[in-house]
Specification:
The protein has five helices and no strands. By secondary structure, it is an all-alpha fold. The radius of gyration is 19 Å and the shape is elongated. Its EC number is 2.7.7.6.
Length: about 110
C-alpha cells in the first residue's frame, strides 16, 4: 500500500476540448479511446482490490464470527482516495501514454 501518489487530481478539472482532440483530430474518437482506457484501469483496480480483500475472506459465514478488520478497512480507504479511472485515463491520453489506432483510417 505504499505506492507513490500520482500527480493526478482527485477532483474535476476543466479541460480545453481542443487539447483532447489534438491526437485524433476527432473529439468523439478521443472520448472513445479515453473511455476504453478508463474501463481497463477500472477493471485492473477492481481485480487488485478483490485480490487484496480475498486474503481476509473467511470460510465461515457465521455472523457471530464477523469482526472489524483494521487492515481491510485501510485497504478499502486507500482505494477510495485514489483518483477515479476516468481522471487517470484523461491524464494518460493527454500525456501520450495511451497507444491507440483506428483501423478504418489506416485502410484509406
Amino acid at each position: 500500500m505504499n505506492t507513490p501518489k500520482p500527480a493526478i487530481p482527485n477532483t474535476t478539472v476543466t479541460r480545453n476540448v481542443h487539447d483532447l482532440d489534438r491526437a485524433t483530430d476527432n473529439i468523439y474518437e478521443s472520448l472513445v479511446v479515453i473511455s476504453k482506457r478508463a474501463n481497463q484501469i477500472s477493471n485492473n483496480m477492481k481485480e487488485e482490490l478483490h485480490g487484496k480483500l480475498a486474503e481476509f475472506a473467511s470460510s465461515n459465514d457465521n455472523l457471530e464470527e464477523i469482526f472489524e478488520n483494521r487492515e481491510q478497512i485501510e485497504i478499502s480507504k486507500h482505494y477510495e482516495r485514489l483518483p477515479k479511472p476516468t481522471l487517470i485515463a484523461i491524464d494518460e491520453f493527454l500525456n501520450g501514454k495511451v497507444y491507440h489506432r483506428n483501423p478504418s483510417k489506416e485502410q484509406k
